[in-house]
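# nightly structure sweep
# worker-07 picked up a monomer target from the shared queue
# config: single-sequence mode, recycle default, output format = structure tokens
# input follows
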Amino acid sequence: MAPGLTIQAVRVTKPKIPEAIRRNFELMEAEKTKLLIATQKQKVVEKEAETERKKAIIEAEKIAQVAKIQFKQKMMEKETEKRISEIEDAAFLAREKAKADAEYYAAHKHATSNKHKLTPEYLELKRYQAIASNSKIYFGSSIPSMFVDSSCALKYSDVRTGSRNSPLPSEEALEASGESPNQKKESIG
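# output follows
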């Protein structure tokens, strides 16, 4: 406004709008409102879909983290079981090795003691004890002597081989004379 001018009053007159224009205007306003409502509904649906997607992502991440933790826990359990098994195997191996060493030592000591114990004199004593405890005694001229030393056994070895140079009579000679080659008498002792 220009300087020095003052507004004393304002008078507004309401114009008369024809009915067709007014209806068109109201229809356009209704369409604008419907369009705004549709756009707002679409935005709400998009926001809800995005929220659901974010919820699904969060849930999937949570499940993945839980699965990862459970996998780590199972791996640790398996490693612990493996260590326990290795310790048990080592203990079993040590026990078996100690047992084998003890058996070897006992066998070695037994062999050593037998070496010292089994002298020719001791073996001869055992032979006489075995003969004394025998309840059967065989008699006959063709039976090799049980009491003959090993040096004498070589002397009569040709009896076993069937040689004719033997001082003992052969089985054929005994059979011709009517004697059994193994005459025996049983004595109860």
